[in-house]
Specification:
mainly alpha; Arc Repressor Mutant, subunit A; 73% helix
């Protein structure tokens, strides 16, 4: 079978990004333990899909392909950084051991999304940061779309997202579903 037309691949990837990027990101955050790294790897995987799928065709299961490609992109990025930072070497080894088998069951992916929602809505984050981060990372809305809805500039909203991500990283906010007694504050 001949490879699909580039326009078809592009439309498929756009649709997948709109419908699946939240699930892909949530799984990557669980596997990698770093929201920024997961987001960067996810975008690289979608870019790689455009090139690869134009030549080889669209895989039967594109979401697992994207997750697998993204985790390898993340590991490669960490290896490059590890050459300059000895502390990163141990982290690369740890993450490689955690991501050797990507679970692709639908329930696990939905659990990943739930964990991402709770991470984005952690009470240590200000409410406007929680909402902006959730709409961006879980719902896949653009910064411009969210800014228009809140009647703020895209730069203002982007700063809210950056500050929320920094707080998650600096406070080591766990990527988990909270205990039942913690649910009301979320």
């Amino acid at each position: 079978m001949p490879p699909p037309a580039p326009e078809q691949v592009s439309r498929t990837i756009e649709t997948l990004y709109r419908l699946e990027s939240g699930r892909v990101l949530a799984t990557l955050v669980r596997l990698l333990g770093d929201l920024d790294l997961a987001e960067e790897a996810m975008h690289e995987a979608f870019a790689a899909a455009l090139e690869s799928w134009t030549l080889a065709g669209i895989p039967d299961k594109p979401r697992p392909w994207l997750i697998s490609t993204a985790r390898f992109k993340a590991i490669d990025a960490m290896r490059r950084r590890a050459r300059f930072d000895g502390a990163q070497r141990d982290l690369v080894t740890h993450i490689e051991s955690r991501v050797s088998d990507v679970p692709l069951e639908e329930e696990e992916i939905e659990d990943d999304r739930l964990r991402l929602i709770f991470t984005c809505c952690h009470p240590a984050l200000p409410p406007e940061g929680q909402l902006a981060l959730t709409l961006r990372e879980v719902c896949g809305l653009t910064t411009e779309e969210i800014a228009r809805a809140f009647l703020v500039t895209p730069a203002t909203l982007a700063q809210r997202i950056v500050r929320a991500k920094a707080k998650i990283r600096e406070a080591s906010i766990p990527y988990e579903v909270p205990a039942p007694q913690e649910l009301p504050e979320r």
